[in-house]
Amino acid sequence: MKKLLISLILTCCMFAAFAQPSLPFSKGINLSLYFEDWTNPMEPDGSYPNTPPLNLNRYDEADFACFKDMGIEVIRLVCSFDIYTDHPLGYGTIYDEVLKKLDQVCDWAEKYQIYLIIDNHNNHIYNQERNRSNLKMLRPQLEAVWTQIAPRYKDRSEYIIYEIMNEPPSKDSGKWYKLQEEMINLIRQYDKTHSIVVTCSPWSHLEALVKMKPHKDENLIYTFHNPGPEVFNLQGAAWADPAISDLSGLPFPYDKSRLPKLQGRTKNSWVQDYIQNQYRTEGTEKFLTQKFDTVGKWAAKNNVRVFCGELPSTIYINLEDRVNWIRTAVDACKKNNIAYLSWGIGEDQGFLKTDKEISIFPQADDFEVAALEAYGFKLPDSSLIEKARELHFPQKPYTVFDGIAGKGSTVGMWGNAKITKGDKSQSWCFNASYPAKEIGMKIIPSNIITSEFKDNADNMIISLSVKFSTPRQVFELILLDSDGGEKELPWSKSYIIKASDYSVGDWVNIELPITKFSDGQGAWSDVTHEWYDLPSQFDWARFENLYFKFPNSTDPGSILIDNIVIKKK
What we know:
It is globular, with a radius of gyration of 26 Å. By secondary structure, the chain is an alpha/beta fold. It has helices at about 1-15, 60-70, 95-110, 125, 135-155, 175-190, 205-210, 230-235, 240-245, 270-275, 280, 285-300, 320-335, 370-375, 380-390, 445-450, 455, and strands at about 25-35, 75-80, 115-120, 160-165, 195-200, 220-225, 305-310, 340, 400, 410-415, 415-420, 430-435, 440-445, 460-470, 475-480, 490-500, 505-515, 520, 520-525, 530-535, 545-550, 555-569.
């Protein structure tokens, strides 16, 4: 009995010696396109001046109730602080509306006991080729962020966590290590208690992390991203390497009989060489598990906490293969006491059946349940989904855009179009700047809003605030059906708005009853890439978006638009 007791004690001691400390969370998601936006174009000098926090209405407390019910324990909040400041290179004061919304998000996270990682995801400026190794340029951006964030949230609960920077790209890991140490010390000048997420250079690669010497601070959490193989788990993604973008049908685990015929930019590329020579080894459950084992051993040896901050898999992968990869990765994480975060809910790496950008919480039927469950989550209760999708329309007017997109709406622009803060009498607003050959803005409200037009169109009004700079200016507001190709063309109704009808140089409020819109002639389909010169057959059941069309002009000036609202008469 005594020998057995000694044996048990020794076993426990050995386990303690080789097991890293646990995190208070085991699984979660990244929350992107919320405190992040890619609408305004980059300037020639690589800066993003005057960029709006366009998506701050995308999620609210009802969504956090859904997240909690799904089993999400931690959210990594993707924050584009490098473009949300009053300095074009991200060195300045973070916009007040961004910080106020971040305060709310912290409130919701604490209320629902979800850990919140405030991730300085400065991908706009500091992941550009010209800036990737410029640590002298990066230092003032990091200092600007953390001298504002750390003192603001130092008295919050332990549910709030800081992440110094997403995927540092510097090729000199030693220089990044020193800069990261400086930022740890800087944060600790304001906040002695909250955990800080740190990582390795380059790109938070797993292989670099296990070579990294831990920092001295004991309240750190170490992170790595995407264990791969990227050729498999990023296949089909338009933003990936072109040879990976054109790849489809690659199985996991490796199965020679199921290897796809390579086409497009994948054929005769480095990806083809990888599949033929390395994937048979690296595309296996054993190899993937061993990568996590390596991290687990490193964490245990150094007595540090670690998590996989991005565990992505695209929706373009064959579902069975995708689920196999997710389950293998998740099991390896659990085995090694490593927490993990999927990329997100929507987009091309989420839990949904399509890659469409989500602007409101999806319906239950939109979820790819097999992928959701493989990551360890479940569908939220239907009553919670219903509450998260409430827009209270048409009982209340719906704000489509007031410098920030309304919940459920997405905004796209092209040509010489931006959202700016240039007019002192308004906050953020849409700016069509001349001279220009092509300018356009398209807003897609939630179908919760557009579906109300099917039976109530004649009772609807679209109102907007406009400021013209010259009396000859004009633009057209077009209502468009969805584009289903030749069988369901995007028919239109339009209204022409002329500066000559209003006071030029002042903000004017314009109310447009839907009954005043005229049927358009013909339709252009982006599906067939053809023009159909036919009488309009506009169908309110397919009404999808608001399209602001601006004619070519050589005259200087601008048209500003704000406060776009849909309401009943």
